[in-house]
Design a protein that fits this description.
The structure holds three protein chains of three kinds. Chain A is mainly α. In chain A, 48% of the residues lie in helices and 4% in strands. Chain A contains eight helices and four strands, in the order αααββββααααα. In chain A, helix 1 packs antiparallel against helix 2 (35-58) and helix 6 (155-164) packs antiparallel against helix 8 (185-197). Chain A starts with a helix and ends in a 7-residue tail after the last helix. In chain B, strand 1 and strand 2 form a beta hairpin. Classes of the chains: A mainly alpha, B alpha+beta, C alpha+beta. Chains B and C meet through helix 1, helix 3 and helix 4 of B and helix 6 of C.
Chain lengths: 204, 156, 439
């Protein structure tokens, strides 16, 4: 319950930031600024807005559940703590007899309430937990850009990851009884590319 | 044909590759020590070792196990000599006994990775195995006891 | 020493005591070929239906209660072994077949439930053990040509203190079989108990730690098929029509048969049977209970709770006391329908042949299940052999008045003319099993 409220507040914050950026762009345009510079500003504003749209995907249970703030993955459309006290473990692959791939196969097991699956089902490792849960759009954006937090990736590397990683792609074929994220995969990738191409600007 | 290596023995089985490993073990190979409890990786009764990891055989397609090393409760030891089996008998853990194969196979991975587990470690390892009789307190004691037996064996 | 009188007739009824020969078969368990123990024939002392002593020193105790986790395969043998003065390390346990001598001493049918097993079997098993001991002592006395009173039994031996001689129960088994039945037996003084009241390790633990324990779901028979049943979506629903083509197209599926419980898909194993079951297309007549829902039921119960109920006991004037009470407390207690959720999903193996029927299952209710199997098979009850396996949990789920899980297996086996194991999926039992009563 609490988490949902937090999420709503953050979304609102982002909308405010985006509107501000657009307003600034409009004002700048009105001052008769150099067209190229104005275009660049508009592009940056568009990139920021694109990240904002993609943010809704990152905050969706299909993505957020395996990027938890704590040491336990979440599950289900209500992002409840994963059953069976499953833990991140030393490598992000679970712990002892409860390693991710003990139940999660490389593909979904057919049927409702059956374990979903994709190649290399895992959580981020504890040294680089890449938390989504509870992060604002700005916080998440800065986390993505920080090589110390993103596994030493460039922006291009980040884009490649979200475009190609089978575990990310799984979000759009989550199996029976699980909703997919609010944007289609193509829309999501396009938004993230727009964000990258526009200089990867972060919302406040 | 899929070749399986179960408890050190090779088997060629002619089954649909999507068949869960559980049913190949139980119905095709007759190794009924591994149990069916829920069929959806929720109860742990079907736990076996696949390359040393405590997989839920009820959701593991047999194709994943092809050519890999599988150990079931029948293969844990030849003569009840595994420290967990000795501890299970000493503490008299089972009641109806139906979940215990899975409990023991899960605990075996815990002990391999952590020879002196704390209560928290036991919770982290064993929370995926349900016991309808409620033998949990004795399972906990027996895992601690098995760790001692393991340490004694190490000293000898 | 306290002595309990046991009439000869009672012993004849419950035992194999016939003088002048080793009487195997009369009261010995009717075993299937697979279960026939080697050596059961010559050299077994079987004084009554509850114990056998072999020349190999094995002491087999026949337990007429079902082991479902409560430890009855240890506690009942303790009672008998106490009086028998048996060597506890030699004790083996065997499930009793269905026969009147194995009926519950209070309920009069063969059943395990209600936390009644130990107290209701206590005297019976003490007598059975004491009787066997008495005969072994008599056999030794005869062998040595001494008075029985000069001998005593201890830890699997009969000893003659005066001469220091001793003979093991195995060595005495043959001779003990020829001894005349006693009319009365002497029971031990409870202060001399060595097993009863002492913490003992369970006898079934080793088998439950290496995968060798056999539950109903583990039973294997030559040529056995496995069935999974499409069960009604609503209690009381009936099959209107079904299309089996997709089910029959699943490799490994052999038969699709309609039974009282629904439609059974019979296959080489559980997995093809379940796949076939899931591929069935069935039109159900959901019947009058289709509209039943928990909320409406709860409201109905609440309403009924306001009506005057049956009086279980009347003492004093409750209404007056309540009326005059300074403080009144009210509470509402509700109990929903709950699945028992036995860890071992429900199952039963049946093998119906023209001349007989065998059933293997983890059951708490042998008499009812045997009779139901006979009825479903169209055979007299004497032609049904029911083998009780270990139970992966009971909780009453395996003592059901209509024996539905046995009946359906018999129906399927009879139809397909092969041994069949019917296995319920977990969902089958949670959705439409036999629930705990609600209130």
């Amino acid at each position: 319950m609490q988490r949902h409220e937090v999420k709503r507040r953050r979304r609102w914050r982002w909308v405010t930031a985006a509107s501000l950026a657009l307003a600034v762009a409009a004002v700048v345009a009105g001052t008769g600024e150099e067209p190229a510079r104005a275009a660049a500003r508009a592009e940056e504003a568009g990139a920021r807005a694109a990240f904002g749209a993609a943010y809704a995907v990152f905050m969706h249970p299909r993505c957020l559940n395996c990027h938890p703030a704590g040491e336990q993955p979440l599950q289900g459309d209500d992002s409840r703590p994963h059953a069976q006290n499953v833990q991140r473990g030393r490598t992000g692959n679970g712990k002892y007899a409860l390693k991710c791939s003990n139940c999660h196969q490389t593909a979904n097991v057919a049927g409702r309430h059956m374990p979903p699956g994709a190649p290399n089902w895992h959580l981020p490792p504890p040294g680089m937990p890449m938390v989504f849960e509870g992060k604002t759009a700005g916080e998440l954006c800065r986390q993505f850009k920080d090589p110390a937090e993103n596994g030493g990736k460039t922006i291009a590397g980040v884009i490649h990851h979200i475009e190609e990683d089978p575990l990310v792609l799984w979000g759009w074929s989550p199996g029976e009884g699980r909703t997919p994220p609010p944007l289609s995969r193509a829309e999501f990738v396009a938004k993230m590319k727009q964000w990258a191409d526009g200089g990867a600007p972060c919302p406040e | 044909m899929i070749t399986l290596q179960v408890n050190g023995r090779k088997y060629d089985v002619d089954v649909d590759p999507s068949t869960p490993l559980l049913w190949v073990l139980r119905d095709t190979l007759g190794l009924t020590g591994t149990k069916y409890g829920c069929g959806m990786a929720q109860c742990g009764a079907c736990t076996v070792h696949l390359e040393g990891e405590a997989v839920r055989s009820c959701v593991t397609p047999v194709s994943r196990a092809a050519g890999k090393k599988i150990t079931t409760i029948e293969g844990l030891s030849a003569n009840l000599s595994h420290p967990l089996q000795r501890a299970w008998i000493e503490i008299d853990v089972p009641q109806c006994g139906y979940c215990q194969s899975g409990q023991i196979m899960a605990a075996a991975v815990l002990l391999r990775e952590n020879a002196r587990p704390t209560d928290t470690d036991i919770d982290d390892a064993m929370a995926g195995n349900i016991c309808r009789c409620g033998t949990y307190p004795r399972i906990r004691r027996a895992i601690h006891r098995a760790a001692e037996l393991l340490a004694e064996r190490g000293r000898r | 020493m306290s002595a309990a009188k046991v009439s000869r007739r009672e012993f004849l009824r419950s035992g194999t005591l016939v003088a002048g020969g080793l009487v195997i078969g009369l009261r010995l368990p009717a075993l299937s070929a697979a279960e026939e123990a080697p050596g059961l024939g010559a050299g077994v002392f079987a004084p009554n239906g509850f114990v056998r002593v072999g020349t190999d020193e094995a002491v087999t105790i026949i337990v007429n209660k079902s082991e479902m986790g409560q430890g009855i395969y240890t506690s009942l043998p303790m009672i008998l072994a106490e009086e028998l003065e048996a060597d506890w390390s030699r004790i083996r346990v065997e499930a009793a077949p269905v026969a009147p001598e194995y009926n519950h001493t209070v309920f009069g049918i063969q059943l395990t439930g209600g936390s009644t097993s130990v107290w209701s079997s206590f005297d019976q098993l003490r007598q059975a053990g004491a009787m066997a001991r008495l005969l072994l002592v008599a056999a030794a006395a005869q062998a040595w040509g001494v008075e029985a009173a000069a001998c005593r039994a201890e830890n699997g031996f009969v000893l003659h203190s005066a001469s220091g001689r001793r003979l093991s129960y195995g060595q005495l088994a043959d001779r003990a079989s020829t001894m005349p039945a006693p009319i009365e037996v002497a029971l031990k003084n409870p202060k001399d108990f060595k097993l009863i009241g002492k913490p003992m390790r369970r006898l079934d633990t080793p088998a439950k730690t290496n995968g060798t324990a056999v539950f109903g779901i583990d039973v294997k028979r030559q040529g056995m098929l496995t069935a999974v049943v499409a069960r009604p979506p609503v209690f009381g629903a009936r099959v209107k029509s079904f299309d089996a083509r997709k089910a029959l197209a699943v490799p490994g599926v052999w038969h699709v048969v309609q039974i009282d419980a629904g439609v059974a898909v019979v296959a080489d194993g559980f997995w093809p049977a379940k796949r076939g079951r899931d591929a069935l297309e069935i039109v159900w007549d959901e019947g009058p209970l289709a509209g039943l829902d928990s909320q409406a039921q709860r409201e109905q119960y609440a309403e009924l709770a306001q009506q005057p109920g049956a009086v279980a006991r009347r003492e004093g004037d409750a209404a007056a006391a309540m009326g005059g009470a300074a403080k009144r407390l009210e509470a509402v207690y509700e109990l929903p329908y709950l699945a028992h959720a036995t860890m071992e999903p429900m199952n039963c193996v049946a093998d119906v042949r023209p001349d007989g029927c065998e059933v293997w299952t983890g059951t708490q209710f042998q008499t009812g299940d045997r009779d139901a199997a006979a009825q479903a098979a169209g055979l007299p009850p004497e032609q049904v052999k029911l083998h009780t396996t270990l139970l992966g949990g009971g909780f009453g789920r395996r003592a059901v008045f209509d024996s539905h899980f046995v009946r359906e297996a018999v129906q399927v086996s009879k139809t397909v003319k092969a041994p069949v194991k019917v296995v319920w999926t977990r969902e089958d039992d949670i959705r439409g099993g036999f629930y705990r009563p609600a209130c």
